[in-house]
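hey so u asked for the seq, here:
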Amino acid sequence: MKEGVKPFFSSVIKATFLTVIVSLIGVLLFALLVKFADVPDIAIKIVNQFIKVVAVFCGCYFSLSGDKGLFKGITTGLISTLMLYLIFSLLSGAEVFGVKTLIDLIFVAVIGGISGIIAVNLRGKE
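ran it, structure tokens below
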């Protein structure tokens, strides 16, 4: 059964906000760990990627259902990543958009697509 534009975007908005919240909590907790422990730079990069993957999966899994999981997941990943870049740019006072950001957007879009497919298939076609 096909769904309209409104249900598509309402589930994507829910997934996006959940992704952003989980990501911010993960980054905050990891920042506390980094503050009190000597963590190598490579570990910081790896853990940040892991936080993105977990956040996008959580957002998709708990918010997406129905059909079009691939498109919902990609949209969720892209919008949430752009929102997080905006938030972190405002907090740091620095512009962070560049080639690395583009690569990160592609990475999160792929993760979002996979998470969206998994979410709609595991949760069923509600």
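Residues 5-123 form one domain. The mean pLDDT is 89.
lmk if thats what u needed
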